[in-house]
């Protein structure tokens, strides 16, 4: 057992302390805590520990508001105030950026935030009988386990989703088996849609008094926080600095979440996505919103794209990327060939974003804006955005003096 002061937070929500220079990760601890903990795993450069007791509580520590918090694996940070969560996440992101890329001309944007409960309009549930006790449950995965925690209600879900959860849970628990099943729920303007009952869904939003309508597969990707999604799209558009004659490339476009609002302001937008089903929905969405200045292409963006029609010999004024957690490593290596003046990169994984920023920096792109967006309050996940501007040549980094002995 050890005693230590927690002075930082890891990307996955664990407290970080140090003993004799060695890093110790403690789940359930936050900066400002002094704790006792048991070492559970020893590595050469770090150790994992389990929290035993909080000896001195951080001023940022609060009581979790969910009764299932210590069992359910859905949230990791309910024991920290929402203000502290946002501060920790922003600081972690900016610190990592400063270590990796040239930040001398970068402005840090205010965090985008919304309500921290009742915000989640989409959720994937698991149901079946746990192997450990054979009990039939409907809910989320347990902390550090493949077991299912039974979830009658979740304070992060929208009221409509919680109401639908109650009914679905009553239907599915009697038929639960040892073969676990997943089902996705999505709140739409016309009600909650379940992926085991229908194949398509819809959503809508308005930006600056212009409404947009979207359809998507019922189990397809959608940003779970509708209010943050609208704020994020507006910020991306602002950072793109669009003009009416511009040609824009939207990579990992999905069903057109960014593509359509951008299209309403420019001459041409090309959306590229690897999922054929999402591309079909994107085309239908463009037609439904009467945005004929859009073109969509199905392309695997994790392979060489230099020979495709939308890339080879083309030039774009602006590029927007919104990849999944794996990032955009392959396409980032050659984006400079398209000669865009501004690139806006949206990411749910700061580590892969920073990896890709280094590739873009090597092609004379310099980061000018960066910001955190609290898309997933009370979890360790973070949505971030950066703006890069094409420069003639990046200034050389100062070399450290080398003294010969």
Could you characterize what this model shows?
The structure is a single chain. With 405 residues, the protein is α/β, with parallel strands linked by helices. The protein folds into 3 domains: 2-61, Nucleic acid-binding proteins (OB fold (Dihydrolipoamide Acetyltransferase, E2P), Beta Barrel), CATH 2.40.50; 83-115 and 225-390, 3-Layer(aba) Sandwich (Rossmann fold); 120-223, OB fold (Dihydrolipoamide Acetyltransferase, E2P), CATH 2.40.50. 20% of the residues lie in helices and 32% in strands. The chain contains 7 helices and 20 strands. It has an 8-stranded mixed sheet, with helices on both faces. A 5-stranded mixed beta barrel has the order 1-2-3-5-4. A hairpin with a 2-residue loop joins strand 2 (15-19) and strand 3 (22-27). The radius of gyration is 23 Å and the shape is globular. The chain starts with a strand and ends in a 15-residue tail after the last strand. The model is unreliable at 399-405 (pLDDT under 50).
What's the SSE blueprint?
Layout: E1 2-9, E2 15-19, E3 22-27, E4 34-42, E5 46-56, H1 82-100, E6 107-108, E7 122-129, E8 136-141, E9 148-150, H2 159-172, E10 181-188, E11 191-194, E12 200-207, E13 210-217, H3 226-240, E14 247-251, H4 259-263, E15 268-273, H5 276-288, E16 294-298, E17 318-321, H6 329-332, E18 342-347, H7 350-361, E19 365-373, E20 383-390
Parallel strand pairs: 3-5, 6-19, 14-15, 14-17, 15-16, 17-18
Antiparallel strand pairs: 1-2, 1-4, 2-3, 4-5, 7-8, 7-10, 8-9, 10-11, 12-13, 18-20, 19-20
Helix pairs in contact: 1-7
